[in-house]
Amino acid sequence: MPRRPERMSISIEEAYPVTLKISRTSKGSYKWEVEVRAASPAEAVERVQQLDEWCRERFGAVTQKVGDMALSEHPEPMNPLPEPAFPIEHGGQALGKVILGHEETTIKIDPSCKVRLEDPAISSFLIKKAIQPLCERLRAKWRPVEEDGFLREIIIDKPLSGDDAVSLIKSARWAITKAFSRPLSKKPGEEKNG
Question: How far apart (Å, rounded) are the C-alpha atoms in residues 8 and 166?
């Protein structure tokens, strides 16, 4: 018998694991402060290094000034900050993640996680109670991506933040964990073995 999913929670701190404060000095140079919340010291150091490198690329050595504007050594477009991803796990197994992208939000399901769009936890709860009302309120569109009869992604065409992001992460974690913990049902139209 499948285990009942544990209660899951997400805090605002988890939704905003990084704080980056950038200041411009009176001489036109920049300084920054990075605060990171992470599960381990190694993860924290890695995130700080990524952000520091990004800041150095964008605000690092100044080669010349044009009026009040400082031009950096790197005139090419800067690399965007990494998109935050929030894992969906059950019993230590990775089931997927919610990616809060710069232009869209994606619920990405791991290929080893076999869940169907028709599962009530997905269709009746995640989509009807969480995604559709959210998209109606934000005037966003969403679409599922299926592969071989299994749900692989749900893409919302707008980026989410704050309470909207927290709510979607909690709903996705619950629904995918619930659908994964059930016996896999046959897709409508498939023949039963026997």
Answer: 12
69-72 and 85-90 as β-strands: parallel, antiparallel, unpaired? unpaired
What are the respective helix, strand and coil percentages of the chain, to the nearest 5?
A: 30, 30, 40
- The CA distances from residue 140 to 29, 59, 112, 145, in Å, are 39, 34, 29, 17
Tell me, rounded to whole angstroms, the distance of Cα 172 from its chain centroid.
Answer: 11
Q: Which residue ranges does the chain devote to CATH 3.30.70?
A: 85-181
CATH number of 85-181: 3.30.70
pLDDT of 127-170, one tens digit each? 999 999 999 999 999 999 999 889 999 999 999 888 898 999 99
Token readout for 28 is 């036109």
- Distance, in Å, from the CA atom of 105 to the CA atom of 136, rounded to the nearest integer, reads 15
pTM for this entry: 0.58
Which amino acid belongs to residue 10?
A: I
Task: Give the number of C-alpha atoms closer than 13 A to the C-alpha of residue 63, restricted to the C-beta side.
Answer: 7
Supply φ then ψ for residue 162, to 5 degrees. Answer: 60, -140
3-state secondary structure of 106: strand
d(CA 158, CA 45): 30
